[in-house]
C-alpha cells in the first residue's frame, strides 16, 4: 500500500513561492529553493503537488512538445486549502514568455541580496514590491505609507543624524522604565524634522520598488532598487525619473537601477546618469550595494562635520 501524499516543508516552500510570485518554471524553483540538491528532487516535489491538485503546469515552449520546460501555477486548492489565503484571478492567468524569463531575473536579485551579500557578513534584508489589490489597496495619502517608504524615511533620518537604531535597542528604557519602541507617532515626528532638507519632501508615500535594508546597532541604510525589465518602455522610465527625481540628485539616498545584462543599459546609461541614477548589471548587485552604502556613510560624516563646525 503506497503512502499518502503529504505537503512537506520543501513542498510548502514551493507553494509559498508560487503564491507570492504567481508563476515560476521548474528550473527557477530549483535554483531558488533546492539548488544544493539535484533538480530531480524539485521535479518530484512538483509532480506530487500536481497529483494533489495544488499546482498545475503548462509548457513554456509549446512548439517543443514534451521537451519543453514546464511553468507552474498554484491552484485554488493550493491557495485556499493549504495556505489559507484568498484565491484571485491572477493565479489563473498564463504569463507571456518574456514575463517567465524575467521571473528568473527577479528571483536572482533576491538571491544576490539575501544569500551572496549576507554570505559576506552583512545582514542585508530585501523588501519585495507589494502586491496591491482590493484586500491590500495602494496607499493614497502621505500618512498611509508602504514599508519601503518607512525604511527610506528612517535611512534619510539616520544620514541626517536624527535617528539611530540604538535608541530603540532591546533594554533601552524611557523615563518610566518602559522599553522604548518605534511608533507611528515617532515616525511622523522624524519625517517632520527632515522635511526641511533637500530630499525629504520627495520621499514618496507609495514607494513600491525593491528595498535593500541594512540595520545594525548604530546604522540604518535603505537602498531603493529599480529592477529594469528588458522591454521597459518610456512610461516606465518616466515614472521612475519622477518618483526618484530629487532622491537621485542628493546623497541622502542612492537609488540603484539593476539590469539583467550589462549590454541592456548601454543605450540608456547617459540618460540614467542625467537623472543621477546608479546602474549596474545584476551580477554586480553586491558591489553596487556596497558603493551605495559608502556614499551614505560619507554623507553622514560630512553632515556631522558641518554641524561640529557651527558650534
What characteristic shape results from the CA principal axes?
globular
Strand order of the largest sheet: 4-5-6-7-8
Radius of gyration: 22 Å
Strand content: 5-15%
Unreliable parts = none
Q: Terminal Cα separation, in Å?
A: 82 Å
- Average pLDDT value? 85
Helix content: 40-55%
Number of extended strands: 8
How many individual helices?
Answer: 10
Q: Sheet with the most strands?
A: 5 strands, mixed
Number of domains: 2
Task: Sketch the topology as an H/E string, one letter per element.
Answer: HEHHEEHHEHHEEHEHEH
Look at the helices and sheets and give the structural class. Answer: alpha/beta
Key terms for this structure?
five-stranded mixed sheet, three-stranded antiparallel sheet, Arc Repressor Mutant, subunit A, 8 strands
Note down, in words, how this protein is organized.
This protein is of the alpha/beta class and 311 residues long. It has 2 domains: 9-95, Arc Repressor Mutant, subunit A; 105-309, no CATH class. It is 42% helix and 13% strand. It is built from 10 helices and 8 strands. It has helices at residues 9-21, 26-33, 39-51, 76-82, 97-119, 147-160, 184-194, 234-243, 269-274, 285-309; strands at residues 23-25, 55-59, 70-74, 124-127, 210-215, 220-227, 256-259, 278-281.
Amino acid at each position: 500500500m503506497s503512502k499518502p501524499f503529504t505537503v512537506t516543508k520543501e513542498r510548502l516552500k514551493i507553494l509559498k513561492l508560487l503564491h507570492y510570485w504567481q508563476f515560476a518554471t521548474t528550473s527557477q524553483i530549483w535554483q531558488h529553493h533546492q539548488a544544493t540538491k539535484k533538480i530531480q528532487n524539485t521535479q518530484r516535489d512538483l509532480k506530487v503537488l500536481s497529483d494533489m491538485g495544488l499546482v498545475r503546469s503548462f509548457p513554456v515552449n509549446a512548439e517543443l512538445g514534451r521537451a519543453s520546460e514546464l511553468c507552474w501555477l498554484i491552484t485554488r486548492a493550493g491557495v485556499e486549502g493549504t495556505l489559507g489565503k484568498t484565491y484571485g484571478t491572477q493565479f489563473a492567468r498564463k504569463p507571456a514568455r518574456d514575463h517567465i524569463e524575467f521571473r528568473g531575473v527577479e528571483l536572482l536579485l533576491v538571491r544576490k541580496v539575501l544569500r551572496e551579500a549576507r554570505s559576506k557578513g552583512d545582514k542585508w534584508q530585501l523588501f519585495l514590491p507589494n502586491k496591491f489589490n482590493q484586500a491590500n489597496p495602494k496607499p493614497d495619502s502621505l500618512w498611509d505609507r508602504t514599508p519601503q517608504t518607512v525604511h527610506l524615511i528612517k535611512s534619510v533620518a539616520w544620514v541626517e543624524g536624527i535617528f539611530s537604531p540604538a535608541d530603540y535597542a532591546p533594554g533601552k528604557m524611557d523615563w518610566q522604565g518602559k522599553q522604548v519602541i518605534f511608533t507611528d507617532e515617532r515616525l511622523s515626528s522624524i519625517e517632520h524634522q527632515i522635511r526641511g532638507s533637500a530630499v525629504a519632501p520627495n520621499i514618496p508615500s507609495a514607494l513600491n520598488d525593491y528595498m535593500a535594508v541594512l540595520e545594525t546597532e548604530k546604522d540604518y541604510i535603505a537602498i531603493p532598487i529599480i529592477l529594469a525589465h528588458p522591454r521597459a518602455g518610456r512610461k516606465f522610465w518616466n515614472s521612475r525619473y519622477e518618483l526618484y527625481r530629487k532622491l537621485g540628485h542628493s546623497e541622502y539616498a542612492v537609488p540603484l537601477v539593476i539590469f539583467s545584462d550589462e549590454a541592456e543599459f548601454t543605450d540608456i546609461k547617459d540618460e540614467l546618469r542625467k537623472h543621477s541614477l546608479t546602474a549596474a548589471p545584476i551580477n554586480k548587485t553586491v558591489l553596487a550595494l556596497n558603493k551605495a552604502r559608502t556614499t551614505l556613510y560619507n554623507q553622514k560624516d560630512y553632515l556631522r562635520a558641518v554641524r561640529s563646525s557651527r558650534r
